[in-house]
Amino acid sequence: MHIDAHQHFWDPAREDYGWMPPDDPVLTRTYGPDDLRPALAETGVGRTVLVQAAQTVAETEYLLKIAEATPEVAKVVGWIDFEDPGKIDVLKRFAGHPKFAGVRPMIQDLPDDGWMLREGVQWAYRALIDLDLTFDCLGFPRHLDNFHTLLTRYPEMRAVIDHCMKPQFREDGWFGRWADGMTRLAEETHACCKLSGLVTEAGDNWSADVLRPATDHVLSEFGAVRVMWGSDWPVARLRMEYGDWHALALELTAHLTEGEQEQIFAGTAQNFYRIDG
Hints:
Helix content: 40-55%
Number of strands: 8
């Protein structure tokens, strides 16, 4: 059974998805469990990790309610306000939910690249460690140095890098700085890495050959035991359908052993997010 370590559900009518275009034919519509089930059946994905897409506590509560009614959803990655230490009570309340895994601040969308290192948000990382919760690292290559500082500051924190830190395939010379930063994270922190989101960053000219330098580097540096596959559905639908990305990811990992593939498509996510078998 495969595990999808990164997918979303949302309802634009909630009006808390500030990043969402107002009239995008793919994104600006409601996505729920019934929309995803056919793709899960097609690909043999049995469990998923449902990840926040809005910077509100209300959306996390909305996702947890979906998870309670959806057996396929194994865990939820939510959101709290890192800038308000008083919200530790909210985090503690969420931590008591059996399907709550951890949090993801939407760092990629913040104007200050150094936000994660501000003194006023450090309480949240300490709380995640104390409560044994996870931290999803959402950023771009320009955030690599700051994430390195953060994750070496808190080596006990269970952290995972979303979307391979979004390599910018369409920029000249994209590989060098991104690859160096990812190698430092692999060698000097305990973070895992999600094999997800890559086709979106590659744009319309995506192909296995375009993605392979990035996937080969991540697999080489982190090793299968620290890499987990995620669909980033429905965002991935900007480029391809769920089953197409699943098949492409299988192609990009076909050179690995069967055991390594099992780690990437199930074991790593199961261990990191503590998903029951």
